[in-house]
Amino acid sequence: MNAIIAVFAMAVLPQAGPVNYVPIVQNKKWGYIDAKGKVVIQPQFDGARAFTGPLAPAMKGDKWGLVNRDGAWTLAPEYEFIGDFSMGLACVVRNGRIGFVNASGQIVIRPTLPWPVADPPFVPKFTEGLAGVIVEANDERFAWGYIDMAGNRMFDATFFYGGEFSEGLAAVATEAESWGYIDRTGKFAIEPKFQYAGIFRDGLAPVVKDSKFGYIDKSGTLVIPNKYSDALEFNEGLALVLDGEQYKVIDTEGKQAFAKTFPELDPLALELFRFSEGMLVFIEENAEGEWLWGYVDRSGKVAIPAKFQFAGLFKNGIAPVTIRRGDDYLEGYIDKAGNYVWQPSK
């Protein structure tokens, strides 16, 4: 994998299910360590992502398969892509078509669904028993629908876009700037009246109305005014919003949680800008004009100074980070004190 793909393969640690083994790279081969930094699967793969259950995606050449905790192949590396496990199933892509495998590595939904070319790649996952997938595709449009965990098509409705379910609702678009929320029966719980709608977390979801971001509750009522240029989903009761030229952190009442603000977020890595185990990544420009990544805690205090090229989410007390030496990007893991549990390597 190239440097940027390698960075994000490590940076977004899965947030569901047990995560005991995480990927490391050494001498351009990938293996796994546990949360204490002990090598548990020797580096031998051409790419790897974290365990989100008994299996993990790994690469041989340019193909993905699944390995178990002994490092043995459970699903042969014959796929263009394999997603992380969610609700015991993982998306697989073969011959440009999407299907799903279970935690034993068995195909439970055959790869027949369209897989559009996208960057980053479109990777559906099951949440609350359903997955939003593209059910029809041609040169002019995609039509999104929902399937259950047996692959059965749920309700006849199709959408311009269908998001994941969270807190009983999924954001869908009927056209480019007409977003609302459906329940698990496919009926609109909140009519499509927004220009954009995000995922519900902590009972709130970011939406765009009159070209400004705010937050609604599950009745569709705007409870935090639409006055922001950007707003991310809540996590651990806090969320980032763009107020003027600075991002600030607000609580679920819309109050600023602490005084520190942030001038910059990486639009390609918005998934990383949320609290994980009480820590939030931020980006700061140093004296040489280089943008570096660090962490603040829930009080806004800098817990780990900005000194990394990239920094990821904490899980089980550790987080992936990337540093640069010359032209090389090296990936490692730190604890919440900023100490390395795995020294950066490549």
Q: What proportion of the residues is helical, as a percent range?
A: under 10%
Query: Runs with pLDDT <50, length 5+?
Result: 1-9
- Return the structural class: mainly beta
Number of strands: 32
The percentage of residues in β strands lies in over 45%
Note the gap between the termini: 11 Å
* Widest beta sheet: strand line-up: 4-5-6-7
Choose one word for the global shape: globular
Mean pLDDT: 92
Rg over CA atoms: 20 Å
What is this structure, in a nutshell?
This protein is mostly beta strands and 346 residues long. It is 3% helix and 52% strand.
Could you characterize what this model shows?
The chain is an all-beta fold. 3% of the residues lie in helices and 52% in strands. A four-stranded antiparallel sheet has the order 4-5-6-7, with no helix packed on it. The chain has a four-stranded antiparallel sheet with strand order 8-9-10-11, with no helix packed on it. The longest helix is centred in the first third of the chain and has 9 residues, at 3-11.
For this entry, give a set of tags.
four-stranded antiparallel beta sheet; mainly beta; 3% helix; 1 helix; 346 residues
